[in-house]
Structure formats: C-alpha cells, structure tokens
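Message: I would value a second opinion on how I read folds in token form. Give me a protein, with the fold worked out from its sequence. Write it directly below this note and I will take it from there.
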Amino acid sequence: MMYLSIYLIVVNLAAFSMYGIDKQKAIRHQWRISEAALIGVAVLGGGIGAFLGMRIFRHKTKHVKFVLGVPVCILLWAAGIAYIIMK
C-alpha cells in the first residue's frame, strides 16, 4: 500500500504540472501537450492532480471529455482503492 501511495502522489504531481505547463504553452501559442496525454495521466491515477490543475489554471474546463472524464477517473480509482482496502 505504501508503494501505491507514493505512486499516486507522484502521478498526481505530474498531472497537476502537466496542466499548468499546457496552460502556459497555450497562452504563449507554443507546442502543446496532447489532450490524450492530459487525459491519460488522469487514467493512470492522476485524476486529483488533473482536476486541481483544471480548476486552478482554468484549463480545459469547457471540454466535456475533461469535465466528465477526469471526475470519472477519480471515482474509478477511489472505488479500486476502496476495494483493495476492504478486501
């Protein structure tokens, strides 16, 4: 369980950073992080970091796949962790 906790901390920090970096790149009209990568990091367990990045940086908040997809990722990971703990 300790390794899972460390993994989730790292992936959520990465997700949060990715959303912040992509927002800055969007403002500067530079090369962007792909939407697949931004959603992918949420799928890999970075949903909370992605959600906070969306809210704090006000980034991708008008895209339905992000507004719905990121919370779904959080719920699925929470359910999986609850299952592991209850087992």
